[in-house]
Amino acid sequence: MKRIGMLTSGGDCQALNAAMRGVVKTLDNAKEDVEIYGFLDGYRGLIYGDFRMLTGGDFSGILTKGGTILGTSRTPFKTIKDPDENGLDKVEAMKQNYYKLKLDCLVILGGNGTHKTANLLREEGLNVVTLPKTIDNDLWGTDMTFGFQSAVNIATEAIDCIHTTAASHGRVFIVEVMGHKVGWLTLNAGMASGADIILIPEIPYDIDKVIEKIEERDRKGSRFTIIAVAEGAISKEDAKLSKKEYKKKMENYPYPSVSYEVAAKIQEKTGREVRVTVPGHTQRGGSPCPYDRVFASRLGAEAGKLILDGQYGFMVGYKNREIVRVPLDEVAGKLKYLSPDATIVQEAKLLGISFGD
Ligand code: F6P
């Protein structure tokens, strides 16, 4: 008999349920006798002992279901060692609940912050297996995270829809794509939808270069320009600021987000009509795409195998088209940026896409 705690933490994404189902199906298929303790709303559930016993039935019919059947919340790593408002030691509370329930291991699904806490729990002696989720695809140690491809599909569809209206009106359209501090999602959705300009955090932009591209398109007779802007995109001037200076600048930032700043600058310098669309959390919502259903199931199957083998302290990742086991301490605390020298960036440039650099 294995007693397994499971939780999903951080921002949700598509295929969380598919991944959990993959773990449970694998254990079930191996005729392993298991008890599953589903902690509710991420680490919060583990801290406060808020859980629900889950049976096979809970995992049936959820392959295609978006969100997470366990609920999630953000429990920032930087305050995890601080006592809560009632003085509770959160790390100690998680350990106590783990031991009280006599768990054999925790299966933790999450992104960057989640992995830092998962690694801390491992260091504290708990058995942990993790699965890499996030639409941002910024998790170290894996070429891809689940949720990413589904979000690419949604952001692509958003830009596709903008294309027709942009063409009718001859306007400049900006679509702001999520992705936190990295440009994976924007680059992929931008390329998939034929964006003319793609601005990502890893390649700071020069607004004059952005305008050059718009004017080049004008000269060639294109009536419109589509710009995919990552929510973390940054101008060359801002990229030169120290962390402190940048923080100060952002305190008095007059725009709702970077896309509106880019729009205002284009409008100011060219007099062109610019519109901004922000698909926002739609990118994390809805049913996982077929790719993510398969991918998350494969990752879940390997996590199940790790549990069967009694191998803990790993994230199940994906490297060179293979599912792999990555030691948690190699993953925690590192972001996977998109290199400006990556071949995909070079190929995008060959296609004539401008990065505003
Ligand atoms: O990490 C996933 C993500 O959707 C990012 O792309 C985005 O920056 C952030 O979460 C939004 O967070 P929240 O849902 O807390 O607003």
How far apart the termini lie comes to 58 Å
The percent of residues in helical segments reads 40-55%
| Ligands and ions found | 6-O-phosphono-beta-D-fructofuranose
CATH fold label of the largest domain: Rossmann fold
Write the element-wise H/E pattern from the N-terminal end onward: EHEHEHEHEHEHEHEHHHEHEEHH
Number of strands: 11
Radius of gyration: 22 Å
Shape, please? Answer: elongated
- Strand order of the main beta sheet, please? 3-2-1-4-5-10-11
In the CATH hierarchy, the architecture of the largest domain is 3-Layer(aba) Sandwich
- The computed structural class is alpha/beta
Q: What is the averaged pLDDT score?
A: 97
Number of helices: 13
Q: Please give the largest β-sheet.
A: 7 strands, mixed
CATH class of the largest domain: Alpha Beta
Q: What is the oligomer described by this structure?
A: single chain
* Poorly predicted runs of 5 or more residues: none
Residue share in β-strands: 15-25%
